[in-house]
Amino acid sequence: MTALALPPGSTRIKRVHSFEELVSTPFANGVNALCWERSLPGDFEEVVAAVGAGEGIVTLDEARLRTLPVGAAGREAIDVLLVDLRRLREHELDPMLNCIHGYPSDDSSEVVRTDVFSFHADSATVAADTYLCTYHGSASEGVGNDEVQRKVDIPAIRAGLLRDFGGEDGEDFRAHLHEHCYDLHYAPMPGARPFGFGLGHLWRIAIEYPGCPVPPCIHRAPATIPGQPRLLLIS
């Protein structure tokens, strides 16, 4: 597990000390990310090796986890995974455990890339949060809201999107930006300090929805490294 290193002076991230505190603490006063910092037992690399080679995103259910051919340290890691899945389900969430060999990515010719490698905010039409934990591989990254700018507000990008849209910069254009999630993607400003979510830590982050009391947490997936799949819990 990797220690959690947060940007100095960050006021949007709050550490909590239990699962109960993670799920019950309200987002308020600008805080839009809660982190239960943990040092987990077990060998998660052994679990990933037992899953084997693959492509894209491989979802692991409890039945497969229980039958993976691992030793004692791998079994200890699997027990952690099963407990995390159970905790979230008991909280009426729908967690997924993914072994990620690679993600789909946008064509580089797009004016605004909308894949997971771009800093973005999650969104929903009703009140909701995102839960994340990376157990193996490269961890998710976040960046402060005051260190980014919406890509659709950058004049050159907006002009390119408007050209592709073929209309005027009005209500229909704004609806087009929202429909294609362009308005959920952000560009870091000069001097921005992205931070890693670390390994083993369970996060709850705010997303964009009507009436959300805080700005959404801006984050992205790390670049895929061949031969080093991520083991990620997401809900």
Shape: globular
> Span from first to last CA?
21 Å
Enter the CATH topology name. Answer: Jelly Rolls
Mean pLDDT: 92
Order of adjacent strands in the largest pleated sheet: 1-2-10-5-12-4-3
Biggest pleated-sheet summary: 7 strands, mixed
Rg, alpha carbons = 19 Å
DSSP helical segment count? 6
Residue ranges: pLDDT <50 for 5 or more in a row?
Answer: none
Helix content: 25-40%
Number of domains: 1
CATH architecture field: Sandwich
How many strands? 12
Structural class by helix and strand composition:
alpha+beta
The helix-strand sequence is EHEHEHHEEEEHHEEEEE
Strand content: 15-25%
CATH class: Mainly Beta
Structure description:
- The protein has one domain: Jelly Rolls (Sandwich).
- The protein is 25% helix and 21% strand.
- The chain has 6 helices and 12 strands.
- The protein has helices at 19-24, 44-51, 62-67, 72-90, 155-165, 171-179, and strands at residues 13-16, 33-36, 57-60, 96-100, 129-136, 141-143, 148-150, 186-188, 195-196, 202-206, 218-220, 230-234.
- Strand 1, helix 1 (19-24) and strand 2 (33-36) form a beta-alpha-beta unit.
- The protein is globular, with a radius of gyration of 19 Å.
Write the layout of secondary structure elements.
Layout: E1 13-16, H1 19-24, E2 33-36, H2 44-51, E3 57-60, H3 62-67, H4 72-90, E4 96-100, E5 129-136, E6 141-143, E7 148-150, H5 155-165, H6 171-179, E8 186-188, E9 195-196, E10 202-206, E11 218-220, E12 230-234
Parallel strand pairs: 1-2
Antiparallel strand pairs: 2-10, 3-4, 4-12, 5-10, 5-12, 6-9, 6-11, 7-8
Helix pairs in contact: 2-4
